Every structure is written in structure tokens, then in C-alpha cells.
């Protein structure tokens, strides 16, 4: 046991000489959080103008409807600018507005007479997803307008049931994905940097000559990387408690367990990179691997509800099995329904990676020359 | 000229000292693009619908199938299910009587607000079709006037906006790595003692970085073309647009290497500048549509100008002011060349011990 403590202390001292490694899991993730916060944490309404030429009452009713119909984000689908017609077209032409609706002068008259009243919807469609939103948002507007205009009742009413008292917001969902990335990178960067330094300083040569099992060397390294990953991720969770205001509370231990198993999958791979790669390329590979895994392994959205759409290559990473249980714990303070199966899979991934990583690393260290 | 070509040849050979960095810097944007296209938004959604048992339910199903773009994709792919009222993972639509009124009820699983929005809107669009049919001439016709003749897949814009990023990343990262390692390996002394003019040495490095940038952009361009079948008009013009951007990035990498003289900080500067510039520079949509504040910041980056110049090549429509964007890119490139020359003079020519 004394041997273990000596080697752990040696690793800690090596880390103290290069404490900047602690930032490797922090800076990129903070950057991603801010970027996605700016993109998806703000207002998501479409900016449009409504040009109302109608001389009757229904044009004004339609205009008012735009402000009343709220999306699940809790804000109107459209943010309507009350611009003069010329200004509206200019803003639309320069892409400051997503669209322009034009209500003709005889709109009310046609509606009352039952003569197929028409409104024009001009919109940008260089992005088919946003064009889709214009089309399906307009249905929400017209539905409400029919109700306000006193049209006969629809043949089919609409209702919906949501299982939680409050709607899950998108940005917190993303932020938990980023937190998992922070846990993962915190461990990987630590392992890579310390191993690379030992490789450069030829300390690994001494390890190779040691008469004892190399597990005495690899265990403290892995443990230190695990602790650093957990510390980095927890510090990141501290930031999430300020923005967007989520914190696991009494489920922190469960978060550590899940995130720790994910770290244990990635740390042996970082060990192998550290044995071979040079400083600079190794850092690039480590960080870019983390970013890519974040994007393809449920970092941007809930996984369970989209499991059929999860591509095969995402399923070979443990992150995809950990991210939704982490969301349950951090966002809803609720025990994941798939806790046991997630834990089982993560233990399997970690064990496989540790066995392969340690085995290959040991072989390399022991190799003469 | 011979000396320049020899220097350029030497610069190209330096690939062997940083092979992995080159591979990552050149291929990463294309890999990122290919991965992202598998998870990026797609207008067609699978909707679980309880198997119809009545005419009304059948007509709702038919209406759902009609929800879509007249100049693009359908928005709903109905999946018929036999739902027993048990827990819902994603969503399911069923028709039931509520207070004596036939009602299309959508049951959601614990999904996020964005998914709820998408499911809700599609059901409303289908139900509105039924209502419109019943209203007949009293129904309001929303006449669509789309900007472009066809809806264009978001993958095209995303790929277009990645092109400047690909060029920038390749030039900035390799520029930073090559320059910083000249100090780490002490080969900078050779440059300082060389009888060649600093402009010649910098010019050779910059030329080689620009070539790397164009290769990276070329690979991404092919990836975008293969995925979306969208190929730019006038390929030479695309290269010309990316040229000043590559110069800016190459100079940035060189300056970072000269200032920090260590790989990691130089690498971080190049990486952060690339990703920050990309995200702030119209990465996910035209800058103007994200509000005035974003647009102002965005115009300070070369990315937005490059995106606006590339836009007509893919979409056949002009955005922004091409002359202003082209002039801005050229000015930025000129400024960065001057900055790189100044940094080279301060860090190499005037330094005694490196």
C-alpha cells in the first residue's frame, strides 16, 4: 500500500508543476456553454412584420393573434414589428426580418362574405427547417384566429398531455451534455498530460524496469485522473447552478458515480495517447475527440425520446447511456428509470476500456528499448 | 524565385514534423460536418399515431400525411401504433371524446420544449386542414411566397458556413504549430541567420498555409456536395473568396507562434479564434437574422463576410453587400500580413537569443 501512496504522491507533484492541465476540461466546455447559451438560451421567436391593409375589423384581430399565441417556450411564435410597409420590405430584404405577412384591404369583407379571404406570407426558405417553422407556426396562428373570429367549431378539437408539471427547457438539456463533457475532458487531459510528461522525461523507462506489477503505476495515475475529472465536472456544475440554474443537490453522489464511470472509459484511452503522441497533437486529439463525442452522443438533446434516431457510431460510446440519467438527476432531481441498466452498461464500458488500456499500456512500458 | 520555391518546398516538407496536426486541422471540419449532418434538424418528423378506428381518425391521418412543403419535404411521417394508454416515451396522437367533443389528444413523454413545439405544430397543421375543409369558402387561405424557388436543406447552409471555418482552422493551427516549434526546436536561429529576406521566408510559409487551407476547404466542399448534392457555381470564385480568409488565418497562426513561442498557448489562440469566429460569424444562420447586436459583432469577423460572399455560389441569391465584404476581407488580410511582418521583425530579426 505504501508503494501506491508514494506513486500517487509523485503523480500529484507532477500535476502541481503543471496545474494548468486542470483548465483543459474547463475552458473548452465553458466556451461551448456560452456559445449555446447565446444561441438557444435567448428569445426564439421569429421576427416578422405584419402589413395590415384591411379596412375592416378582422385584420386587426389577426394582427393581435400573433402576440397571443404562445409556443412551448412560453413566448409568442412571432415577434411582430410594427413597421411601415416600405421599411418592412427593406428589413425583410436585408434578412433582419424572417418574414412579412400582408393582409389585403378587403380581408374582412371577403371573410364575412365567405369569398376565400387570402393573406400573403412572405418568408425566407434558405434553411428548410426554418421554412418549415413558418408553415407550421402559421397553422397555430390561424387556429387561434378562427376561434377569435367566431368561426364554426372545428371537426376535431385539440388537446395535449405532458407528464411533468413544468416543460423541460432546451438549454438546460444541452448544459448537462456539456457538463458530462467537462467531467470527461477533465480526466482525459490530466491523464494525457501527466503520461506525456513521464514519457518525455523517460520516467516510463524506469516503470518498465520495475520488478513489481505495473498496476502499482497505473492505478494511482487512473485514480488521480478520475479525481481531476470529477473535480472539473463538479466545478462546471457549480457554474450551471448560476446559469442556467441547475444543480443535482442530494443526487450529487449518483452524478459522480455515472460521470466517474464515463471518465474511467476515456482515461485509459488518453493514457495510450499520452504514451505515443507528442504534447501538441495529443492535446488536439484529446479535445477534438471530446467535442465530437459531445455532438454525436446526446449532448444536444434528450436521447431516450430519440433512441431510434441515434446512429450506430454513437452507441459505441458510454456517454450516450449516461447523459439522460444525468439529466434526470440534475434537472429533475429524480431517480432515472433506467438506472440499473445504465449503470450495468457503464460498468461494462469502463471495465473493457480499463482492461484494454492498462493491458496495452503495460505491454508498451515493458517493451525493451 | 528559385529561393522562394526552395523555401516553399521546405515548408511543405515540414508536414512530416507535424503530420498529425495537419491531418486533424485539415480533416476535422469535414468529419465534424459528416457527423453533424446525421444529427442536424430535419423537417420530416416521425409521429406516432394510434391506429385509426373511425372515419375522423382516418381523415386526421390523411391530413397529417399532407402536412409539408409544396416546394420541399413532407413534415410528417406517421407511424401507426396500437397504444394501450401506457407510459409514453416520445409522443402518441389519439382521438378521444372529451366533454362530448371528438378531440385529437397528443400525449407526450418527458421530452424537451423544442420537441413539444414541433409535435404540437404538426398536429395543429393537420387539424387545421380538416377545419379548413369544413369551412369551405370561409376558410382563410395563407398564400405562401417563399424567397427561393425550392426549400434548401439546412445541411447546405451549415456546410457553406463551415467552409471558411475549415480554411481558417487549417491555416491557423498549422501556422501556430509550425512557427512555435521553430522556437521549441531552435530552428528559428537558422531563419535569423539566413541571407534570405524575411519577406521571402514569411511569404513561403504563408503560401504553404494558404494551400493547406484550400485543401481543407476542398475536402469539406466535396463532403458537402456528396451529402447534399449541392455544388457551388464557379469553383474558382469560391477559392478566391477563401484566399484572404486563409491569409488572415495563416498570419494569425504565425503571430500566435511568434508571440508565445510555445505550441500549447499558440494552439489555444488559433483554436479559440477559429471556433469563436465561426460561431460569431454566421455559423448557424445569416447574421442579420440573429439581431443587431450579433450582427455588429459578426461583421467584425472575416467569417460573416466570407459566408455572405459564398452564399450566392450555393443559393443563387445575394445577401449583404458583396463589394463591402470583399473589400473588408482584403483589408483584414493586408492588416494581418503587416502584423505578422511586424511580429517577425520583433521576435526574430531583432532578437539575439532565441
What are the SSEs and their pairings?
The complex is a heterodimer of chains A (369) and B (354).
Chain A: H1 2-17, H2 27-40, E1 46-52, H3 58-68, E2 78-81, H4 85-93, E3 99-103, H5 107-113, E4 118-123, H6 128-148, E5 157-161, H7 170-200, H8 203-209, H9 215-242, H10 252-276, H11 279-296, H12 319-331, H13 339-366
Parallel strand pairs in A: 1-2, 1-3
Antiparallel strand pairs in A: 3-4
Helix pairs in contact in A: 1-9, 2-7, 3-6, 7-9, 7-10, 7-11, 7-12, 9-10, 10-12, 10-13
Chain B: H1 2-13, H2 19-39, E1 45-50, H3 55-66, E2 76-81, E3 91-98, E4 101-108, H4 113-135, E5 141-146, H5 154-184, H6 188-193, H7 198-228, H8 235-260, H9 263-280, H10 292-298, H11 302-315, H12 322-349
Parallel strand pairs in B: 1-2
Antiparallel strand pairs in B: 3-4
Question: Can you give a write-up of this model?
Answer:
The complex is a heterodimer of chains A (369) and B (354). In chain A, helix 1 (2-17) packs across helix 9. Chain A has 369 residues and is α/β, with parallel strands linked by helices. The mean pLDDT of chain A is 90. In chain A, strands 2-1-3-4 form a four-stranded mixed β-sheet, with helices on both faces. Helices cover 62% and strands 7% of the residues of chain A. In chain A, 47% of the residues are buried. Chain A has two domains: 44-148, abc type-2 transporter like fold (3-Layer(aba) Sandwich); 168-366, no CATH class. Chain B is mostly helical and 354 residues long. Chain B has two domains: 2-39 and 151-349, no CATH class; 45-138, D-Maltodextrin-Binding Protein, domain 2 (3-Layer(aba) Sandwich). In chain B, strand 1, helix 3 and strand 2 (76-81) form a beta-alpha-beta unit. In chain B, helix 2 packs parallel to helix 7 (198-228). Chain B is elongated. Chain B starts with a helix and ends in a 5-residue tail after the last helix. Classes of the chains: A alpha/beta (369), B mainly alpha (354). Strand 4 of chain A pairs parallel with strand 5 of chain B.
Amino acid at each position: 500500500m505504501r508503494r501506491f501512496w508514494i506513486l500517487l504522491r509523485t503523480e500529484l507533484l507532477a500535476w502541481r508543476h503543471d496545474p494548468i492541465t486542470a483548465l483543459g476540461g474547463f475552458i473548452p466546455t465553458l466556451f461551448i456553454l456560452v456559445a449555446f447559451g447565446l444561441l438557444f438560451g435567448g428569445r426564439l421567436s421569429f421576427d416578422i412584420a405584419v402589413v395590415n391593409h384591411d379596412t375592416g375589423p378582422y385584420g386587426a384581430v389577426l394582427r393581435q393573434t400573433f402576440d397571443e399565441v404562445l409556443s412551448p417556450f412560453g413566448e409568442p411564435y412571432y415577434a411582430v414589428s410594427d413597421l411601415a410597409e416600405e421599411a418592412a420590405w427593406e428589413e425583410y430584404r436585408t434578412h433582419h426580418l424572417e418574414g412579412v405577412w400582408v393582409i389585403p384591404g378587403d380581408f374582412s369583407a371577403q371573410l364575412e362574405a365567405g369569398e376565400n379571404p387570402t393573406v400573403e406570407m412572405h418568408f425566407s426558405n434558405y434553411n428548410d427547417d426554418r421554412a418549415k417553422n413558418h408553415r407550421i407556426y402559421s397553422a397555430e396562428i390561424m387556429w387561434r384566429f378562427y376561434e377569435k373570429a367566431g368561426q364554426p367549431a372545428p371537426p376535431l378539437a385539440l388537446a395535449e398531455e405532458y407528464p411533468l408539471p413544468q416543460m423541460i427547457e432546451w438549454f438546460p438539456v444541452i448544459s448537462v451534455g456539456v457538463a458530462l463533457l467537462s467531467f470527461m475532458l477533465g480526466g482525459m487531459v490530466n491523464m494525457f498530460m501527466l503520461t506525456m510528461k513521464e514519457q518525455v522525461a523517460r520516467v516510463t523507462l524506469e516503470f518498465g524496469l520495475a520488478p513489481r506489477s505495473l498496476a502499482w503505476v497505473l492505478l494511482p495515475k487512473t485514480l488521480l485522473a478520475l479525481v481531476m475529472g470529477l473535480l472539473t465536472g463538479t466545478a462546471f456544475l457549480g457554474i450551471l447552478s448560476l446559469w442556467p440554474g441547475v444543480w443535482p443537490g442530494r443526487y450529487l453522489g449518483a452524478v459522480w458515480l455515472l460521470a466517474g464511470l464515463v471518465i474511467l472509459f476515456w482515461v485509459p484511452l488518453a493514457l495510450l495517447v499520452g504514451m505515443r503522441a507528442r504534447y501538441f497533437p495529443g492535446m488536439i486529439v484529446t479535445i477534438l475527440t471530446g467535442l465530437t463525442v459531445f455532438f454525436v452522443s446526446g449532448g444536444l438533446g434528450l436521447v431516450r425520446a430519440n433512441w431510434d434516431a441515434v446512429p450506430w457510431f454513437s452507441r459505441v460510446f458510454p456517454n450516450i447511456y449516461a447523459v439522460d440519467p444525468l439529466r434526470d438527476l440534475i434537472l429533475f432531481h429524480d431517480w432515472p428509470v433506467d438506472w440499473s441498466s445504465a449503470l450495468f452498461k457503464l460498468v461494462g464500458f469502463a471495465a473493457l476500456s480499463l482492461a484494454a488500456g492498462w493491458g496495452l499500456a503495460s505491454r508498451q512500458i515493458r517493451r525493451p528499448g | 524565385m528559385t529561393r522562394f520555391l526552395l523555401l516553399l518546398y521546405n515548408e511543405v516538407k515540414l508536414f512530416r514534423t507535424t503530420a498529425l496536426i495537419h491531418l486533424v486541422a485539415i480533416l476535422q471540419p469535414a468529419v465534424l460536418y459528416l457527423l453533424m449532418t446525421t444529427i442536424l434538424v430535419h423537417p420530416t418528423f416521425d409521429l406516432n399515431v394510434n391506429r385509426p378506428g373511425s372515419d375522423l381518425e382516418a381523415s386526421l391521418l390523411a391530413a397529417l400525411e399532407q402536412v409539408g412543403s409544396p416546394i420541399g419535404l413532407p413534415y410528417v411521417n406517421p407511424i401507426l401504433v396500437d397504444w394501450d394508454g401506457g407510459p409514453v416515451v416520445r409522443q402518441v396522437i389519439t382521438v378521444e371524446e372529451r366533454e362530448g367533443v371528438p378531440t385529437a389528444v397528443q400525449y407526450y413523454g418527458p421530452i424537451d420544449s423544442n420537441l413539444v413545439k414541433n409535435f404540437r405544430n404538426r398536429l395543429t397543421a393537420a387539424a387545421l386542414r380538416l377545419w379548413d375543409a369544413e369551412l369551405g369558402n370561409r376558410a382563410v387561405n395563407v398564400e405562401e411566397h417563399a424567397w427561393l424557388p425550392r426549400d434548401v436543406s439546412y445541411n447546405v447552409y451549415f456546410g457553406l458556413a463551415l467552409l471558411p471555418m475549415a480554411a481558417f482552422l487549417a491555416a491557423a493551427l498549422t501556422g501556430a504549430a509550425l512557427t512555435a516549434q521553430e522556437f521549441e526546436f531552435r530552428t528559428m536561429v537558422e531563419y535569423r541567420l539566413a541571407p534570405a529576406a524575411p519577406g521571402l521566408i514569411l511569404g513561403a510559409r504563408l503560401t504553404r498555409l494558404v494551400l493547406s487551407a484550400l485543401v481543407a476547404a476542398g475536402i469539406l466542399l466535396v463532403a458537402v456536395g456528396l451529402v447534399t448534392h449541392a455544388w457551388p457555381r464557379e469553383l474558382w470564385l469560391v477559392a478566391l473568396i477563401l484566399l484572404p480568409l486563409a491569409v488572415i488565418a495563416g498570419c494569425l497562426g504565425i503571430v500566435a507562434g511568434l508571440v508565445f513561442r510555445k505550441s500549447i498557448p499558440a494552439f489555444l489562440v488559433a483554436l479559440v479564434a477559429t471556433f469563436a469566429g465561426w460561431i460569431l460569424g454566421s455559423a448557424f444562420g445569416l447574421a442579420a437574422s440573429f439581431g443587431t447586436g450579433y450582427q455588429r459583432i459578426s461583421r467584425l469577423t472575416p467569417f460573416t463576410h466570407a459566408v455572405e460572399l459564398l452564399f450566392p455560389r450555393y443559393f443563387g441569391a445575394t445577401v449583404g453587400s458583396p463589394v463591402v465584404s470583399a473589400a473588408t476581407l482584403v483589408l483584414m488580410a493586408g492588416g494581418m500580413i503587416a502584423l505578422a511582418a511586424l511580429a517577425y521583425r520583433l521576435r526574430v530579426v531583432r532578437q539575439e537569443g532565441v
